Structure formats: structure tokens, C-alpha cells
Amino acid sequence: MSRITILIADDDPEIADLIALHLEKEKYHCIKVHNGQDAIQAVHTEPVDLAILDIMMPKFDGYEVTRQIREKYYFPILFLSAKASDLDKIEGLVRGADDYMTKPFNPMELVARVHAHLRRTEQLTRMAASSKPIIEVGGLVIYPEQRSVDLYGKSIELTPKEFDILYLLARHPKKVFSAENIFEQVWGEDYFEGGNTVMVHIRTLRKKLGEDKNKFIKTVWGVGYTLHA
């Protein structure tokens, strides 16, 4: 079994040590850094399977680290921050993170979320190993193996979770998925206050799909979401 490496980037060494202590008990290999520049360097130096990032770090903040990671890598990113407002959480998810926890935090919950994200990534990797057909919906073309999307012949950039949501809806045209269904299938964990998370991702996905002109994702009020041409 290959080693699973987790990057922990937090400017507080005690917090980084605490996270590493709990994750290393689960046999994960941890890389600890204390600023954004070193976090980016670590990603380019050693294969990383998941990153836990603070937002307020010196040199580069967590948002900038995420932006640079997402230019090339699609592993899960979890923000762990003292910024606790709903707007902060929404901002983190929009910037490309897959999850957001606030400080102070329960280390066991953090470990459980790490397990869930890694499990989901493994499932997606196994799915990608099998041949999957290209999906076309109107002017939208989805390439599952490349995890890429074209809209009327032009490539659009989606975060991993945005792609997963779109692909889920596209594989089941006209089927209505509740926010709970989407959260459990895309995040791979039980639904707990995930409605806002799903709503934010749907909102940003619609914006990237040009929903002012194209109506791909339809809201079925009181039920959920569906994809139609």
C-alpha cells in the first residue's frame, strides 16, 4: 500500500503538531510548514494527497496557496481557520477548497473528514480507471477521464467539486437530486449542514456555465436540482 501524504500548513507550530499527531496515529505521512510559500514548494517537491491549510499565513495566504495548487493539482483541500463567519466559509469554498473547518476544532472530526475526502478521491480514481463515455448536453461537453468541460467549444475551468456535481447531474439527465443527495454522493460522507455548501457550489457552477444565457441546471423548488439541455 502506497504512503498517503498530507500537507499541513499553519503558522502556529503547536496546531500543526497537534494535527500531525492525530493523523500520524492513522498511519498518514505528514509534511508540516508554517507559511504559504513553503506550502507551495512542498506541493511541487513531494506528491501530496490532501492539504490542510490555514488562511491567515505569512508570505502567501491560504487563498493564494489554493489558487496556485488548483492550476495543476486536484487533490482535496481543507481550510482550517479562525475565520468563522458564513461569508468566510463561502469564500473558502468558492476559492477551490473542498471543505472548511473553524478553530477551535475537534481533532477527531478533522481526522474523520480527512478519511472521507481520501475515500472519495480513491473512488473517483477507480472510476477514472475505467473507460467512461463523453457526455454532451446541448452545447456542454464533459470529458470524464480528463475531468474537463467545454462550453460551446471553449474550455471552462471548474474546481474538483464543481466538476463532480456537474458530472453527477449529467450522468442522470432530468433526474432531480436533493442537496442531501448531492452532498452525500459528491463529498462521500453523511449529510450534516451541507445544504449551504451545495448551494454555494451550484451558484458558482451556474456562473461558470453562463447561466444568464444558458439554463443547464434547473432548480426544482422544494426538491433539488436537475440538468437539462
From TrEMBL:
SUPFAM superfamilies: C-terminal effector domain of the bipartite response regulators, CheY-like. This is Response regulator transcription factor. Coiled coil: none annotated. Transmembrane segments: none annotated. Residues 5-118 form the Response regulatory domain. Residues 132-229 form the OmpR/PhoB-type domain. The keyword Phosphoprotein applies. Residues 132-229 bind DNA. Keywords: DNA-binding, Phosphoprotein, Transcription, Transcription regulation, Two-component regulatory system. The modification 4-aspartylphosphate is found at D54.
